[in-house]
Here is the input.
Amino acid sequence: MFDQLTQGFENFFRHLRGHGKLTEDNIRESLREVRRILLEADVNFKVVKQFIQNVQEKALGQEVLRSITPGQLVIKIIHDELVALLGEGVSRLDLSSLPPVPVMVVGLQGSGKTTFIAKLGLHLRRKGKFPLLVAGDVYRPAAIDQLQQLGRQLDLPVWAPGVQDPVDICRDGMAEARRTGRDVVLLDTAGRLHIDEPMMQELARIREALKPPEILYVADGMAGQDAVRAAQEFQQRLDFSGIVLTKLDGDAKGGAALSIRAVTGKPIRFIGTGEKTDALEEFHPDRMANRILGMGDIVSLVEKAQEAVDQDTAEKLAQKLARQEFTLEDFLEQLRQLKKMGPLDQLIGMIPGMGKLKNLQVDEKDMKRTEAIICSMTPEERRKPNLINGSRRKRIAMGSGTRVQDVNQLLNQFDQIKGMMRRMGKMKGRSGMPFPFP
Ligand SMILES: Nc1nc2c(ncn2[C@@H]2O[C@H](COP(=O)(O)OP(=O)(O)OP(=O)(O)O)[C@@H](O)[C@H]2O)c(=O)[nH]1
Ligand SMILES: [Mg+2]
Here is the structure.
């Protein structure tokens, strides 16, 4: 997710920290670099212009020039400005009106609407809601099928009367929800490759008929500047209430997606991070900014852990992270839990400083080997890896059916992780400056 942006910022920050003192000139020069990074990641040029202008105003303030750590201050300004760009605070769905509450989901073809409806249905049910999914896309025969399948898979009811006027389907869906005691109605609508008049009129008619308090615009995170233009047009026609960015698990540059909130002024509500139905996250501007700037997102990581693991285990993990008491036993326990939490590379991406851990192996096969190696250690060795000398390494390799190199590699990885945690600990401890930078 946003790998290119993150890489760009990491290099830039490294360069910036090299400056002992900053002058107006090298601040201006630095900001040219930031502009290049943003434009290359496909952030909309108007958005970039405003962003740079805001950062420049703050960075040229006397405070930065006089500061003894000007590089860090500039980094903080960029961080804060990025948070502002992504939206202030978390913006939740408003489902407070009289149930059943209709939520309309719109967007271009293939942006991920139907998948999102299923994900949102699951998410809301986990929050104690009773959603009904409504198949309002009648133009692609497979569309109705797709929603029905997702409904079956998740055990969520689907209203799919077949090919009829989508406005009637949505209205009947509301009546069905009333009959069956469902409190949220998620309306799937048709997409088109390009915005066209009949499509917009149809969406406007549904909006008119149901007056949904929430209309969510689904934007494909892989798309380029076209997505920004489409978002503007949807906004003008429908005045949607929130944005969903999908496919952020891909290696897309993501800059266009990030521009949508600035261009439309509407909050990003959710992000989709995979094809599976649980790959949905509520959007937190600050956490996202941290991820983009390579500062990791330990809060989302722990939250993901909480979903997969029971509350107790997650809390213990958080405490151990904070106290930096992390042994190979914990490492093994985490590996086992990690399997439940989803694709490992995504999780690793949430860990601060992951950029420096490129050689950390996270493949499933390696996990098995790692497990075998740790299981071949004595409990004492697991708690005090320093004890593991040459002859112990040989014994452990023999016992686990691996090679001494494998044992060495694991111990190195473990050291790296511990180092990373130390950085995180420091990051927490330093007041007012939540960055893992020296
Ligand atoms: N990797 C990834 N794929 C996604 C995500 N969301 C959706 N997809 C995939 O994108 C493709 C299109 O998703 P749909 O949900 O069918 O999109 P849609 O907007 O309903 O498409 P139409 O109904 O044709 O307009 C599918 O192959 C999904 O599996 C995501 O967050 N990550
Ligand atoms: Mg669809």
